[in-house]
Structures are given as structure tokens and as C-alpha cells.
From TrEMBL, chain A:
Belongs to the HAD-like hydrolase superfamily. One of its GO terms (cellular component) is cytoplasm. Its cofactor is Mg(2+). Coiled coil: none annotated. Keywords: Coiled coil, Magnesium, Metal-binding. This is Haloacid dehalogenase-like hydrolase domain-containing protein 2. It comes from the Eukaryota. The keyword tRNA processing does not apply.
UniProtKB/TrEMBL annotation, chain B:
It catalyses: diphosphate + H2O = 2 phosphate + H(+). Phosphatase that hydrolyzes imidodiphosphate, 3-phosphohistidine and 6-phospholysine. Has broad substrate specificity and can also hydrolyze inorganic diphosphate, but with lower efficiency. Keywords: Cytoplasm, Hydrolase, Magnesium, Metal-binding, Nucleus. The keyword Hydrolase applies. Pfam families: Hydrolase_6 (PF13344), Hydrolase_like (PF13242). It is found in: Cytoplasm; Nucleus. GO terms for molecular function: inorganic diphosphate phosphatase activity; metal ion binding; phosphatase activity. Its EC number is 3.6.1.1. This is Phospholysine phosphohistidine inorganic pyrophosphate phosphatase. GO terms for cellular component: cytosol; nucleus. Its cofactor is Mg(2+).
Amino acid sequence: MAARRALKAVLVDLSGTLHIEDSAVPGAQEALRRLRNSPVAIKFVTNTTKECKKTLLERLRRLEFDITEDEIFTSLTAARNLLEQKHVRPLLLVDNSALPDFEGIDTNNPNAVVIGLAPEHFNYQTMNKAFRLLLDGAPLIAIHKARYYKRKDGLALGPGPFVTGLEYATDTKATVVGKPEKTFFLEALRSMGCTPEETIMIGDDCRDDVGGAQNAGMRGILVKTGKYRAGDEDKISPAPHLTCDSFTYAVDHILQNLL
Amino acid sequence: MATWAVGARGLRGLLLDVSGVLYDSGGEEGLGSAIAGSVQAVRRIKQSGLKLRFCTNETQATRAKFVQKLQQLGFDVSEKEVIAPAPAACRILQERGLRPYLLVHDALAPEFDSVDKSNPNCVVLGDAANNFSYENLNKAFQVLIGLETPILFSLGKGRYYKETDGLKLDVGVYMKALEYACDIEAEVVGKPSKAFFLSALADMDVEPHEALMIGDDIVNDVGGAQQCGIGALLVRTGKFRPCDEQHPEVKADGYVTNLAEAVDILLEQLQR
């Protein structure tokens, strides 16, 4: 294998990696501080579509993470960029709290469908409405296709299953804008002036975080917090660069071996 | 004359799809409406001496209620002539000692009255319509993801069907959703599964080459029957859309305006 260039950037997942709902992963704030003292650029990349950037930031600050808004790159931002490029009016199946990130987008008489994590919209009537728009040729834009996510009461269905169902119903493919799409990872790097080979991604979702990043030419570290289930690291090939207990261990590995 | 009709002379048994062939479901009273000419067509098939089974993926009502509804619409049909997924699923559950979490239409639930549903070790998915809520799908998901070997039965795998107020998503969409969520493959009970068509033929004591399937679903009715060596016609009623005649994988043996036209042509051939 070709020699790796020195590490210049670290992409960090939020939900499941730094925090689980309103609790920080133990030690994560301290580990982030140590990472900031090293010569790497950091960006926080997330498929957490229920919340706009502002809300995400407020929570992270409440949990005492040292993060600024321009360091966060979300799949909602990526979706909005795509809607603007295509000049379409979306039926927005996203959580109400995500709507601020779509402010100013015309949603009258929709001719596109955007799906995020929106349990309140995943009912029979709304799914039928989305289906009929798709049959009329509306494009299907998925913020991401995660299979499930972790809630306090256990695992819960993500948007991926609903996107897959609509794809099957209409024999079409959704345009996915979030992780694990290659374009998402590359877009996140754009303002950082680094190449994928100089970047490592840390996350709790083996396919979407680690597999996606590695597919884009980065290295990936899988942490055993959040949605991680035993054996997840065997689900992708090539395997993760590293699988470790938590964000703290991931930072230790970077500081000791990759700089 | 249509080329498919030439083979009709050796015909002994007919399989008819119900929704979209005999009637369109939905409407205010939920009764739906008979498709023009279909009531008479069923009567004429019976008078001709051909054997007949109704091969349906209907899972919004018990077989008994479903038959009652068809009778109310004027159809000459009895319960023993209807091959439906729920009774077939009950047999499979009992044979394999499985206890289901049911995600089905309220009106179908009585079909599973005699089945042990405590501490579920599989999921049975039907066309649950309004019961396809996030909460219910999530419960099904949690049962499956908690099992060492998740078992998902899907009563049919249709994409959508037509009701009087428009196209509606069918069970297959939610089957795909759960398959994707759990990274598994469902066992389909109902069309287009081979076992389902063959059980209908066995019930009539008819061989595949002596039978003909008539339906409005190019993949599940026509494609499913053809996989068993049964000829199949597509009607241009129900969920039919013109692009179905250019389907990339499935070509029907014939295309007809409706059931009445199919029966006209068939009976003319049989009387020669």
C-alpha cells in the first residue's frame, strides 16, 4: 500500500460519537480539547437531520463541547444546496425543528420530495402523498439512508427504510445527500484545503461513517458507543482502519500514531 | 384473434385476481365497486364448467368477510374458492411453531385468533393501511432486530394498488423498509410466491399448463404465474398503467380490456 501522507484533518460524527441525545459520551469533551491542541483541522459532520445547525450547536455547547457553527456540516445543508441547484419545490418530510435550515425555499405545489428523519410524517397518508408525487416524476431526495438510530428506549427506524420503500414502489433511486455518499464527505472537506488521503473520520456507524469515508479515500475509525452493535466492524470491506471503545481512544490513537 | 386464445382449448382451470379485476376497492362505505361486466363474467365461467379459484393477496379483511363483500357486489363466490395469504400464513406459523408480532389491518386480525402471539419470535406483515404508522413499524423492527435469526413474513409484496380515491402503497413497500432496516429477506406468503400458486392449482386438481391466471399486476400476478408455468393475461383495469405493457422483465401472454373481454374470447374458443 502507498505511504500515507501526514494527517491534516479529522471529521467527527456527533450523535452516538460525542453524545447520545442529551448526554455527552464520557470523556469526549476532554478528548476533543486534546485533539484541538494538535495540528489538525476538525469538522463535525452529521446526518442528524432532526435538528437545524443552530439547535445542534446549542446542545453541544450545553454539553460543554468547544465547537463553532462554521465547523458543522450537515446533510440538511447538502439537501438545501441540491434543491437550489435543481430549482424544485419540495414536499419536506423533515422534522419541524429542521425547517429553519430550509427557510426561503418555496414549498407550494410541490414537485420534489425530501425525506429526513421525521417519524411524525412517516404515516400512511403522508407516505401515499409522497408516492403520488414520485409517480408524477418528482425527484426523491434523501437526506440520508440510515437504517436505524439509537434512542433512550432502544433502536428506532431511521429514514432509510422509508426511502427504500418509496424507491421500490416507484422503481426509482433516491439521490442521497448525507453520509455515506462520497459527495458528502468531499463537500465537507472543500473549505478545509485537505485531500481525502490526509483525512480521518470517527463515527459509530460502520457503514455510513466508516465505510462511507473509506470509500471516499479517507481512513475511518469505528467507536463502540451509540448505535454500535457487536460485530458491526465485520460489515464492511476493507475493515475499519481502527475499531475502539470510544472517541477518547480514537483521539489517543491519532495523537500517538498518526501525526 | 389473439394468439394466446389458441391455447385456450386445453384449458381446465382459471385463476382470477380479485382487486382490480373483479372490483375496485375503497369508497365511502369501503365496499368498492364492481368493474363493468365482471359479475356476469364470473357467472359465465362457472356455467362453462371450467374450474375456478380466486387467487388474492387481499389482507384487509378475513376471508369470510371478504367473500361477503364480493357477494354483496353481486359476485357468485364462496369461501372455499378463495385462496388468500392469511390462512396460508396461519398454517406456516403452526407448522414451524412460530409466534408472530402482527402488523396487519384491524379487520384481518381475527384470522389469527387461534395463533399464540405471546413473546413473539417473528413478524407477520400484511397490508395494514392506516396501521402503517411509525410506531407500529418500529415495534415490528424492534422485534426483528432483537431476534438472533429475524423471520419476517410478508403477505404479498405488491407495490401499490388502486382505490376509488387514488393509488395506495401496498405491503411490499413496508416489507422492503423492514428488509432494509434489518438487512434480511422476507418470506413472501401470497402472490408471487410459487408455493401460493401451486396450492391454488392443487386445490383444483389442475396442472400448470391447463391453467390460466388473469390479473392487473404485471409482476405479481402475471410474472408469478408464469414462473410456475401457468399462462397469464393482464387486464387493463385496476392498477394497470400503459407502461405495464412495456415491462422490462415480464411479458403477459395476452393483454385484454377487462375480465369480460377475456371471458368472451376464452369461451368462444372452448365452444369450437
